[in-house]
Specification:
D-Maltodextrin-Binding Protein, domain 2; ten-stranded mixed β-sheet; two-stranded antiparallel ribbon; WH-like_DNA-bd_sf
Length: 308
């Protein structure tokens, strides 16, 4: 006899919490009911999924393999259910959007009001995380789509470019380069460059730019956010690369920091959407992209280079 969807859902929660009482509370069932369903699942599969003692619960090796497959199965089932709910209307129901912290806060304010007016029934759940973590969460079904800097590492994920965004150099107000209108790349040679930590696309780009310009990336002083980087620059600890939308939102209000464009059209980043290639909601996601582009064209087309 095959396992039921409910049994797999129960197993997934127990495997994540490794605690029957906490899992039962999360699932709103009694602990004996949960335990019986896990035992029944193991019986139907003919394997032991969990090692249990009086004080601990651990996944067996085969249990870890089954958990990975269970996550993908439940992810695809949720996709199917979400698609069925929205089949009669474009962009309804629930949409789980993962956003990079270097993108979302400085882009979404231009987009969300228009989306809400156009799709009042859309429930948009937004979660911020580093680009590398967003990509993993997209694969496992925690997000329906993600908004982040491109490219992604996983080529099986479908990506759609929204725009190209120039990167600017953030300088302390008394830096020698603040007197120039544009920063020549060669003038950054030997400069101490601050960046975000590993896992951010902006960190990888800062590495590449420092190698190209001969600048000195300060690995010992990684910022946890763009705001932290800006404050470190303002204290004279170095210079940094900032996306132009962040400059517009925050640096223009900071008297301690000056942002200058770089005299090279190549210094930019791509920002886009990504989703699983086998998602049944592709038409919705493409519509989501078009709605974002319409909103951006009206409000910030002079700041970024929109796709299409």
């Amino acid at each position: 006899m095959k396992p039921t969807i409910r049994q797999l859902e129960y197993f997934s929660v127990v495997a994540e919490t490794l605690h029957f009482r906490k899992a039962a509370e999360q699932l709103h069932v009694s602990q004996p009911t949960l335990s019986d369903q896990i035992k029944e699942l193991e019986y139907r599969l003919g394997i032991v999924l969990l090692d249990r003692t009086r004080h601990t619960v651990e996944l067996t090796p085969v249990g870890r393999e089954i958990l990975d497959r269970t996550k993908f199965l439940l992810r695809d089932l949720n996709d199917l259910c979400d698609h069925a709910k929205t089949a009669k209307s474009m962009l309804g129901g629930t949409l789980r959007l993962g956003v990079a912290p270097t993108v979302g806060p400085y882009l979404l304010p231009y987009v969300l009001p228009d989306l809400h007016r156009a799709y009042p029934d859309l429930k948009l759940y937004i979660r911020e995380d580093r680009s590398s973590s967003l990509e993993q969460a997209l694969r496992t079904g925690q997000h329906d789509l993600i908004l982040t800097a491109l490219p992604l590492e996983d080529e099986s994920l479908r990506t759609e470019i929204l725009f190209n965004e120039p990167l600017m150099v953030g300088l302390p107000k008394d830096h020698r380069l603040t007197v120039t209108d544009k920063i020549a790349p060669q003038s950054l040679k030997g400069e101490a460059v601050l960046s975000l930590g590993a896992g951010h696309r902006l960190y990888e780009q800062a590495q590449d730019l420092c190698r190209e310009f001969g600048a000195d990336l300060q690995d010992d002083y990684e910022g946890t956010s763009l705001d932290t980087l800006r404050q470190m620059v303002g204290m004279g600890m170095g210079v940094s690369f900032f996306p132009s939308l962040y400059v517009r939102s925050e640096i223009t209000k900071d008297p301690e920091v000056c942002a200058k464009p770089i005299a090279s059209k190549a210094v930019k980043r791509q920002v886009g959407l990504a989703w699983r290639g086998n998602s049944p909601r592709i038409k919705e996601f493409l519509q989501f992209k078009e709605d974002i582009l319409v909103a951006l064209k009206q409000k910030i087309s002079h700041e970024v280079m929109l796709s299409g």
